[in-house]
């Protein structure tokens, strides 16, 4: 008795990525790419049309990002398996999408065969994590188990950069100029830093940075 092909939907806002994935997966036995979406919104619409078994999901897209798309998709189709395929490994994206229900997490540096194997594994109900992702999650789990997780461990790489500059007495405009980001983005990061560190103002954040050896 022949088994049905695994129906896969691609959601990525880069057309060349979708074309490459569709071409590669099209050569794999038992896998059928049923649709390609260039945005999260289109991904939800095509999922309703094709009812895929597995969705390969990019994280950073214009409009609805991969985290929100995953949440909405799994609310509609809880049996669907979302495999994140991204270039990003930072905590502010990785943990939220896993918490949203992503089944597996791969980097775009993965080989084509690894992506195909992850799709087959997902269809069998088995998760696959890229080795760096698994390592970060294990470290986080061990730290939590010991109850020794410093507050600064919750900061993203960008937030750490902002904190170090903040500790040097840099203004928001100085930080924006040095990191080549918008002033609103700097303010957003500063707000997150204060909340995560549990401090009330920039001065306390700077003191925290020096006490924990995060700034010169």
Automatic annotation (TrEMBL):
Residue positions where 4-aspartylphosphate is found in the record: 58
Domain Response regulatory span(s) in chain numbering: 7-123
Limits of the HTH luxR-type domain: 148-213
Entries under InterPro entries matching the protein: CheY-like_superfamily (IPR011006), NreC/VraR/RcsB-like_REC (IPR058245), Sig_transdc_resp-reg_C-effctor (IPR016032), Sig_transdc_resp-reg_receiver (IPR001789), Tscrpt_reg_LuxR_C (IPR000792), WalR-like (IPR039420)
Domain of life according to the entry: Bacteria
Keywords, comma-separated and alphabetical: DNA-binding, Phosphoprotein, Transcription, Transcription regulation
Gene3D superfamilies assigned to the protein according to its UniProt record, in alphabetical order: 3.40.50.2300
Annotated Pfam families: GerE, Response_reg
SMART domains assigned: HTH_LUXR (SM00421), REC (SM00448)
Name of this protein: Transcriptional regulatory protein LiaR
Organism field: Paenibacillus auburnensis
Gene symbol of the encoding locus: liaR_2
